[in-house]
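[step 3/7] fold_predict: job queued, chain A
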Amino acid sequence: MIKVPNKSCVRRLGFRSMRAARTRNIVAVLAIALTTVLFTSLFTIASSINYSFQQENFRQAGGDFHGTIKGLTWEQVEEMRSDPLIQGDFARLFVGMPVDPPFNKSHVEVSYLEPAAAPHYFCQPVEGTLPREGTDEAATDTRVLALLGVEPKVGAKFTISFYLDENTSSRKLVTRTFTLSGWWEYDSALVASNVLLPRSAAEEFCAQGSGDPYSMTGEWNLDMMFKSDLQIEENILQILENHGYQHDDPQGENYLKIGVNWGYSGAQLSNSFDISTLIAIVVLLLLIIFTGYLIIYNVFQISVTNDIRFYGLLKTIGTTGRQLRRILRQQAWLLSLIGIPLGLVLGFIVGNKLTPVIMAQLSYKNAFVSFNPLIFIGAAVFSLLTVFLSCARPGRMAAKVSPVEAVRYTEGGAPKKAGKREKVRKAQSGASLPGMAWANLGRSRGKTVVTVISLTLAVVLATITYTFSTGFDMNKYLAHKAEVDFILGDAAYFQTSGGFRTADQAVPESIISDVSARSGVEESGRVYGGVSAAMQFVTEDWLRMSWGAYNSPEAVDQIIEFTNRLPSGLLEANVQMYGMEDFPLSLLDVLDGDLAPLSDPSQKAIAAVYLSDDYNSTQWGSNWAKLGDTVTIRHIDQMEYFYRDTGEIIEDVDAAIESGRPWGERAKVYEDVDYTVCALVRIPNSISYRYRVVGADEFILGAERFKKDTGTDSVMTYVFNTTDEAEGDMESFLAEYTESVQPLYDYESRATYVAEFEGFRSMFMTMGGALSLIIGLVGVLNFINAVLTGILTRKRELAMLQSVGMTGKQLKTMLVFEGLYYTLLALAASLAMTVVLGPLMGSTLGEIFWFFTYRLTVTPILLVLPVFLALGIAVPLLVCRSVARHTIVERLREADA
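[step 4/7] structure written:
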């Protein structure tokens, strides 16, 4: 075969044919732009949420470094930082923490940071500098300065008291006056504020520490950055191995603690990535591509159908199918060059506007819009891929067309030959306008199906969004989060690393009296916390299982070896005890049994507490005690300490610690009480200790029994409900009371969790609504394109119908019926999918979100019904009016031409 250099001719032909189809071009550019808007906005929102999510997590984790090796000496820091796996590193020396007023409601840490670490800890001064060596300078944030009553001005003097060896029995209070060298704005998303000292001052303070092995004072942390945020833990463990250290056995030699920055999405993904995650990502991407495919495919399919005579004539003069496909691809390229950049810009604007709204609903304190170039590259690639997938089948159709058939072609092709029975039926019924309209939809079933699917997808997505958001059950959410209107306790109880630990944190009766005297208080009650030593007795298997979740088998063996054992073989174990009055008892979720015996102080009754997972399902292995079991609690009044190697009683505990000899402790004065388990319960987290002791089970006694057996009456929290009318007034009172009158105490209210719930629900409404709107526009544009090209490709046919007597009114009525059939079919399909898939979706969502309750709803379908009916009527009439500007003769001649 002779090769003819005709590429330029084919390009010119494709370009000129495209110029002749201006209406098609506009629709195609809009379709491509809208598809690109879909990709770009989704990628922008997803990337921005991920970036904001990471930034928020970094602030909660304390920094944006990849990982940390903790509890080092300075020599170990210098040794570790030479490892080739580390791409960047910076060290921190921990000094102490202020916990007394005015810092009792704020988490503040005093430390030394290497200068390179400051930005990673979000401690970069906006005014002044970091403290200089050999000076009395210090740098901190505006929150710390405000609590101290100091104006943020470089050179200002401020005095701060803080504890060395905090959270140990050896803690020591120190006070020092510093000169402010620099300050930065307080970031409320950060878990802790920092007071930064020069290294010389930090080391001076650390030298005053006790050296307690459980103290962080004087410990160095080495924060590290790697090549990527994938496999952070593996990299840290490899570094430890490279230098002869290990992380598996806390009791073994050369053990070092490590930390993986959970704020990185890559670290979380690498930990949880499996085949199901991969499938979910692939399905999501395919769904996005399919959404864009629906509209672009329909545009090119209808375009080829409209120009089928043109392609047939080209074939008669020798144009090959390959050249026709090239013409179509060329047009797709040119249209993409216009539509994709337009869509990228509009999509980024949409994503830029929606991201802050979504992040606000998520209660994120910082919202960042990502300008990652991969957003635009990815959106452009996905759009191009969608365009060429969409024009593949229309290209094959144009390439295979027969010249003779193309000249005679009308939409839907030649009708199938009707059988005898069908001919009789048609003759009897006649040709009604609704029947003709229905028959017209069946002539191009592919176009009809694509158009209906695109409209259906938007309605179904809107229905899913509405079902999802309205299915969030506030009662379920509050039952788990805040079963009570108000909780009053020590300020430390509500801190991230707080909880109730000592009698000093008890709520005084005077405060309870002040609150209960307010009008509107209904049910109320005290939750007592354990401040005296208590132990339980469990089997060795149970203790091994409890400790084995956090320790190596070797470490568990050592724990078992050093645990006191009864003659019966049972082992001593920690226990967390509650005492509750009737009202907090009523807030418990009773799994089995009856709580009534707890209210009778004459009965030795006890309730066993079981834990819940993230989906609010009971963890039945979280407590050994079952209904009717006997639980022996040893209430200890006095402990004694002894050397394990000789059994000698220790008189000076500090000296024993310094000696390094192995020592233990045991009860000296105590009372063992046998209780009967009357109920198995779950306790709402809001009224619990809010922390777990490893190896300890939780039990609840009635208030009077608790006070009698423990000999203590420390109120951990005071919980109460108010009338609806008094709730707002109580909220205002407690805010002022805990701020000004009793600043050592704080509170939580149901309103806090209601706002959190509403924000969560609104976020899904916003995201789902935005996605439904974009896909809805895709469907509407598809519908307009289908009606428009359906009328344009049948100009001759419609003109012939009018030439044999069909009036303009009848023609409009038939076309309106066609439009209504499109929309009604979409609504019917949406209703069917909602009824069939709804329960399945509800079951799945109920497993993911424990506070979701599925309710079948057709509200979104009813809401879009008038919109779809209006579209079904208005679009055909507008197109028909445009076509009717030309006379019947002109339309017949145009079609023949």
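[step 5/7] annotate
The longest strand covers residues 663-682.
The CA atoms of residues 290 and 791 lie 26 Å apart.
exit 0
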